């Protein structure tokens, strides 16, 4: 059997079991209608306006740095205790993909290194011939960090649940400025000062963070970073070959920095790119499979339903004659409404089985005077993809029909009413419905309707065609799609 390589690649990318679970991901499918195409005209370039996710955020947090690898340390210092400093960070974050992003981060803090006892030849002959030495370092740092979302990167293909927790990994370099002080029996003194943007002031840091999604705007995160300063004088030990800095062989004073932070996701969309699973999108456009190019040879197991797929591979052995099938021999249902394309009178628009796969329409009966019949023109509603106000090319014929209808009413005026399903917040849905209504109004005006005949109105989720879809998870996707509409009312 000769099979188109594009079909093989896509079939390998989609687990067989996933086709049976498509209903659980329809909210993603309707949001990304142009992800895959086999030459369809319904393809838009990827621009700023076509983005469906927020990808910018700002983060801030505070915590405790502990010097771990140095001559003077915060962890189990010479007196057997831990010494705590403080730290804070502020960053601007950009998501590049669902699994990778960049951070421009500013850190500020103070490490405190514990005392240890050291002997001095100048000590009196009686009493304690030792004195204590301690360190304190104030630092400022600017760095660029790579951000890997391990939860999305390693997500199982059969995990359709939205994530609330995410494990992130961070690594990057930057410039470090600090002032290191030393305190001994003689008092406190500045030992080393390093200014930023010097060759020797570069440092590196890496670590992990666990994020919790509070809502679509706010994340909480516990993060632990390991900072490598590359400098033997960061701990306040003084000159590189001083008596203190000769205690240990390492030439880099390093510390842990554990913080608790919050992220605010910026943008007009409801969800953020780093919380999205792109594997969901592959299930919507099935026309790639429909364009298979097979030259079927004789099957040893036979092909009893004559659909071009051998019975050994065929997952639907009783495909109706004339039905288009995918690479597994399953009859295509492009709009996923439960009616296969062979029997579906509205192949690309979801609708109930009892209406032959077409949505029920709120049609305003047009006037029959002037030689125009109701079969020729009507005011039908149009539906929208999830979280979108873009008029689909498949709906332009309906709107062109509306232009004819409105222009034939001799002075009649109409409300152009936008509506949404019940996903997202009520405030967001209200704004989205207004954008949809204004989008249709602008189209009608651009195509010849006088602006004084139209009034755009958004009703958000308050005017559901199917009120039982509250919440949206109670209904099949064709009903939720029917709620995402623009329709007309005579004024």
UniProtKB/TrEMBL annotation:
This is OOP family OmpA-OmpF porin. One of its GO terms (biological process) is monoatomic ion transport. It holds the Pfam family OmpA. It comes from Frigoriflavimonas asaccharolytica. Gene3D superfamilies: OmpA-like domain. One of its GO terms (molecular function) is porin activity. Residues 371-491 form the OmpA-like domain. It is a multi-pass membrane protein. It is found in: Cell outer membrane. Coiled coil: none annotated. PROSITE patterns: OMPA_2 (PS51123). Residues 1-20 form the signal peptide. GO terms for cellular component: cell outer membrane; pore complex. Transmembrane segments: none annotated. InterPro entries: Bact_OuterMem_StrucFunc, OMP/PagP_B-barrel, OMP_bac, OmpA-like, OmpA-like_sf, TSP_type-3_rpt. Keywords: Cell outer membrane, Ion transport, Membrane, Porin, Signal, Transmembrane, Transmembrane beta strand, Transport. The keyword Oxidoreductase does not apply.
């Amino acid at each position: 059997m000769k099979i188109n390589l594009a079909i093989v690649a896509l079939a390998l990318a989609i687990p067989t079991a996933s086709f049976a679970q498509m209903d659980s991901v329809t909210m993603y499918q309707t949001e990304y209608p142009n992800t895959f195409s086999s030459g369809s005209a319904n393809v838009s370039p990827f621009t700023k306006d076509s983005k469906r996710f927020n990808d910018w955020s700002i983060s801030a947090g505070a915590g405790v740095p502990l010097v771990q690898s140095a001559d003077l340390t915060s962890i189990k210092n010479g007196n057997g205790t831990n010494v705590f400093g403080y730290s804070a960070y502020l960053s601007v974050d950009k998501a590049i993909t669902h699994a990778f992003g960049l951070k421009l981060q500013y850190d500020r803090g103070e490490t405190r290194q514990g005392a240890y006892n050291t002997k001095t030849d100048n000590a009196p002959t009686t009493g304690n011939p030792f004195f204590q030495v301690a360190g304190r370092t104030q630092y400022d740092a600017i760095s660029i960090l790579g951000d890997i979302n391990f939860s999305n990167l390693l997500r199982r293909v059969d995990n359709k649940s939205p994530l609330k927790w995410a494990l992130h990994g961070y690594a990057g370099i930057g410039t470090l400025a600090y002032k290191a002080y030393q305190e001994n029996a003689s008092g406190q003194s500045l030992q080393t000062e390093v200014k930023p943007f010097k060759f020797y002031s570069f440092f590196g840091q890496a670590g992990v963070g666990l994020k919790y999604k509070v809502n679509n705007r706010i994340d909480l995160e516990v993060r632990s970073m390991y900072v490598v300063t590359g400098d033997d004088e960061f701990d306040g030990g003084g000159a590189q070959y001083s008596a203190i800095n000769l205690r240990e062989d390492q030439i880099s004073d390093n510390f842990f920095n554990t913080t608790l932070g919050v992220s605010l996701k910026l943008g007009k969309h409801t969800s953020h790119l780093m919380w999205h699973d792109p594997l969901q999108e592959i299930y919507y456009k099935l026309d790639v499979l429909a364009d298979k190019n097979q030259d079927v040879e004789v099957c040893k197991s036979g092909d009893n339903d004559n659909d071009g797929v051998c019975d050994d591979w065929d997952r639907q052995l009783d495909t109706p004659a004339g039905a288009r099938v995918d690479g597994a021999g399953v009859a295509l249902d492009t709009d996923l409404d439960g009616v296969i394309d062979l029997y579906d009178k509205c192949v690309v628009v979801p609708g109930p089985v009892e209406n032959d796969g077409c949505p029920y329409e709120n049609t305003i009966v047009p006037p029959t005077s002037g030689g125009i019949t109701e079969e020729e023109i009507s005011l039908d509603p149009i539906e929208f993809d999830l979280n979108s106000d873009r008029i689909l090319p498949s709906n332009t014929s309906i709107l062109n029909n509306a232009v004819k209808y409105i222009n034939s009413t001799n002075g009649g005026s109409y409300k152009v009413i936008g509506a949404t399903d019940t996903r997202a917040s009520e405030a967001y849905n209200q704004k989205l419905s207004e954008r949809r209504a204004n989008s249709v109004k602008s189209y009608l005006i651009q195509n010849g309707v006088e602006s004084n005949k139209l009034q755009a109105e958004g009703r958000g989720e308050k005017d559901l065609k199917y009120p039982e879809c509250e919440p949206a998870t109670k209904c099949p996707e064709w009903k939720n799609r029917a709620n995402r509409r623009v329709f007309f009312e005579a004024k």
